[in-house]
Design a protein that fits this description.
The structure holds two protein chains of two kinds. By secondary structure, chain A is mainly α. Helices cover 65% and strands 3% of the residues of chain A. The longest helix of chain B is centred in the middle third of the chain and has 23 residues. The chains are: A mainly alpha, B mainly alpha.
């Protein structure tokens, strides 16, 4: 048979590799800064652009979408070409994809510190960037499917299925969760509110973990682990089961992120059952990876690449075992809102995503540059210091999470909270925050050593930008009979993609339809009123400063919570919350019933410098709120958009909204003046105080006149 | 706690029941498929990533 000559595009792989390393360093460095802010508030650097609330999202976005994202593209562009025996569909699309993605990252790195955010975790970027993400993703999809279509290999290896599932699902998730109505170029409100918004967000959030951090990496594992070990995957059968059950149930297990918050029992149970069932395919995957190395453990001892991969696969197994455990009601009751979750995600991020990426880089770079790794010794050093870093990180965070949770729930024999002051439970775990940062430093040192090692490797070799290859063309009507249905599917990428899409959509729909229906079924509480214009502006400052990164607004129906914070949260209280601000972590106390708890004066001093009011507090100072003018040019637009979203502001209210705003601002300003604090009614602090004083007061007894 | 809001939706039970049935069915089908898949084909698939090097 005539062999066709062609070449693989290695340059694009190299470019994504460079981006992976560069953004990895940036993302982890920001991670170190936020970690240190939790024991040294001075690390907030006394300016609004680098406070924890603003750069914690920068850290998560940089690590997930920049570091891991580029690593995914690097691995896919390398393996897809080889598995398809074809060059990428279009060099131009490859370049567009690369530069488009880097542009998105740059925009994120600029907008997040500026406080331009939607507040939705892992989906913080504002609507123009959301659109850009969708466009670049479509480019990637065209490039990928184009390559698959023009492939020379009839069969599609399991890794490609994982890639296809990733591309389709991420697109669906991103679009559904980003439906928002713009106020202006830099501000939008989600169409969903309250409970519904939370359900959609965590349907997205959970599946983003599944389909951005898990499925593409499993694809990479199924390609690079056999490559590095030079032996086939242990069981191809197992990989089929692994794939189908994984994509099928992952998308259905969303509700467990909201356990014990305002979710119905059946959805909670559904999430729990599915999450536990997830153990089977996940562990199937881990076992498949590890058993691939059976009889080759001597290689593991010698090759740093395999060491990284073994730890990565093990971390995957641990994290996916822990995930379902965390969805059990009684475990979740302890772990939710604490550092336990931080430990859990970092076992995944540092261990699974990080180490697999490092393993692939150590394997890939020497091949791209046709040389050997500059230093095996350094790679071994990286492995050990990185592993040690993970251990320090995870151990300290598990300890911190459990300690704090138990302190929150501790009652005295008389039935009172043993630690009524939230701050006490924070100060207790500060040493653990230091150990965590130390673990982070170790991990980071490893990455720097790797960077040097890879740089030297590249330096001593020469990039093979276009690697020559040859393969027979694919014969479409093979005389060979198709014996199994699965072969029928996986030799036809179009149909395969369609089935995967249908499955994902059915799974997503089953979860999301009740959510969309629930809106009309949440009884409105007559005393719950829309926010006043000033409160609305204050709420947007709360969002801008990322307060939700540390403060929840969700009191669960536990005695330990109602005792500490007040009446538990009702679904009907959130009906005007576009977006919801329940939060996912309590580094500070819950704020759902913060309104009217303290005088305006208290909030003023507290925002100016939290340590003046609460010595030992780790909250950053927000003194610029006192000097910065509130931008009221947006009020009218915001009221308009909110009305379009169903918030019952009367017709024409937008015209008088600023008048109302100033009236209310005046009252607060006068109240502060009584205590000798002179602050103009047009300052941002006034709006924030108005919002904080409103929080959770709608259903307070004295507000509805019930005795 | 809030389950009655969901219960107010007409026929809401259908969703979890539906998803459970679909999942179990699908899992069984996939398992049977993969167990019945023929050996030489599996071998060929396993070797795919390894024989791309010239």
């Amino acid at each position: 048979m005539e062999l066709e000559k062609f070449s693989y595009d290695n340059k694009i792989v190299r470019n994504f590799a460079v981006a992976t390393v560069v953004w990895g360093i940036v993302g982890m460095l920001v991670g170190l800064i936020v970690a240190s802010q939790l024991f040294a508030p001075v690390m907030n650097l006394s300016n609004q652009y680098t406070t924890f609330g603003r750069i914690r999202p920068l850290h998560t976005n940089a690590v997930i979408f920049a570091f891991v994202g580029n690593a995914i593209f690097m691995g896919i562009y390398y393996s897809l070409q080889r598995l398809c025996k074809a060059r990428m569909f279009s060099d131009a699309l490859s370049k567009l994809h690369f530069w488009g993605w880097q542009t998105i990252i740059l925009l994120a790195a600029v907008t997040l510190p500026l406080g331009i955010t939607t507040s939705k975790e892992y989906a913080e970027l504002e609507w123009p960037i959301d659109i850009l993400i969708a466009l670049v993703w479509v480019i990637f999809a065209i490039n990928m499917f184009g390559t698959i279509v023009k492939r020379r290999e009839k069969h599609m290896y399991v890794a490609i299925w994982f890639y296809i599932a990733t591309v389709i699902t991420v697109a669906v998730l991103h679009i559904v969760n980003s439906i928002e109505l713009p106020v202006n170029l830099l501000k939008s409100y989600p169409v969903y509110a309250g409970v519904q918004d939370a359900l959609v967000q965590w349907w997205y959030g959970h599946n983003a973990v599944a389909f951005f951090l898990t499925t593409p990496f499993l694809g990479l594992m199924y390609y690079f682990l056999p490559k590095a070990a030079n032996r086939p995957i242990y069981s191809y059968r197992l990989s089929i089961i692994h794939f189908w059950s994984l994509i099928f149930i992952y998308i259905w297990a969303g509700p467990h992120h909201l356990l014990y918050t305002s979710l119905p029992d059946w959805a909670q149970s559904l999430g729990t059952v599915f999450s536990i069932m997830l153990i089977a395919p996940s562990w199937g995957g881990m076992i498949n990876g590890l058993l691939t190395l059976r009889g080759a453990w001597d290689k593991v001892r010698e090759m740093p690449v395999l060491k990284f991969m073994v730890v990565a696969v093990t971390a995957y197994g641990m994290a996916t075992f822990e995930g379902p455990m965390l969805s059990l009601k009684n475990v979740n009751a302890i772990a939710h809102f604490t550092d336990w979750i931080v430990a859990h995600v970092h076992v995944g991020a540092l261990g699974w995503n990080g180490f697999l990426t490092f393993g692939i880089l150590y394997w890939l770079i020497p091949r791209l540059y046709k040389t050997d790794l500059y230093s095996n010794k350094m790679a071994n050093f990286h492995f050990w210091i990185g592993t040690l870093g993970i251990v320090f990180y995870a151990a300290s965070m598990y300890w911190a999470g459990i300690t704090q949770s138990l302190m929150w729930k501790q009652f005295t024999p008389e039935g009172l909270l043993q630690y009524p002051n939230f701050l006490e439970t924070v100060i207790k775990i500060i040493p653990l925050y230091m150990i965590r940062a130390f673990g982070g430093v170790l991990y980071f040192i490893g990455v720097i050593v790797m960077t040097y090692n890879l740089y030297k490797t590249a330096k001593q070799g020469k990039l093979v930008a276009n690697e020559d290859a040859e393969a027979p063309p694919m014969i479409l009507n093979s005389p060979e009979k198709i014996k199994t249905k699965h072969r029928l599917i996986e030799s036809r990428p179009g149909q395969f993609a369609l089935i995967a899409a249908v499955l994902v959509i059915i799974g997503g729909a089953v979860e999301i339809i009740p959510t969309l229906l629930i809106k009309s079924n949440i009884p409105t509480i007559s005393s719950v009123k829309p926010y006043t214009p000033l409160e609305l502006q204050g709420r947007d400052i709360y969002i801008r400063e990322g307060c939700n990164n540390c403060h929840s607004q969700m009191i669960r129906p536990f005695r330990s919570e109602t005792e500490r914070y007040g009446e538990y949260s009702k679904a009907g209280e959130f009906v005007y919350d576009h977006p919801f601000l329940w939060g996912s972590k309590r580094t500070g106390p819950d704020l759902q019933r913060e309104g009217k708890k303290y005088p305006n004066l208290w909030h003023f001093y507290h925002m100016e410098n939290p340590r003046n009011i609460s010595p030992g507090s780790i909250m950053p100072a927000y003194d610029w709120l006192i000097t910065q003018d509130l931008d009221i040019s947006t009020t009218e637009g915001k009221v308009n958009v909110m009305r379009k979203l169903g918030v019952p502001y009367p017709e024409g209210y937008e015209k008088i909204s600023n008048e109302e705003l100033l009236k209310q601002a005046d009252e607060i300003s006068k109240d502060l003046a009584k205590n000798d604090i002179r602050v103009n009614n047009n300052k941002e602090i006034i709006a924030l105080i108005a919002y904080l004083q409103r929080l959770g007061t709608d259903i307070k007894v004295d507000n509805i006149g019930v005795k | 706690m809030f389950q009655h809001y969901f219960e107010l939706i007409d026929g809401v039970e259908i969703y979890p029941v539906f998803s459970l049935i679909v999942f179990v069915t699908f899992f069984v089908i996939v398992s049977v498929w993969s167990l019945k898949a023929d050996k030489s084909y599996l071998k060929e698939m396993e070797m795919l990533p390894l024989d791309d090097e010239k």
